[in-house]
Design goal:
By secondary structure, the chain is mostly helical. It has helices spanning about 5-25, 40-65, 75-85, 90-95.
Amino acid sequence: MSQTASVWVVLLVALVAANLPFLNERLFGAVPLSTAHKSLAIRFGELVVLYFIAGGIGLLFERRAGQISAQGWEFYAVTASLFVVLAFPGFTWRYLMKHRH
């Protein structure tokens, strides 16, 4: 896989992972919970875990392409901010739009 394709795959994985907590009532989209609705804290916890999973996939692609570059705190601050921005459509759909029940 080319480096350009790897970048697009990681961005697509990050987009799906960032919106997953807001689009369903299951833990990580697979595990049913005993409560009817997930709380916002659980959704944010999922968001953090999925951020590290998406980052791990990016790290695997980087390792496969060659040398892994050392990153400082700035890199993680920017990628976490990007991940939160990617989660905005799911957050908007879940909390800011009116749904008929």
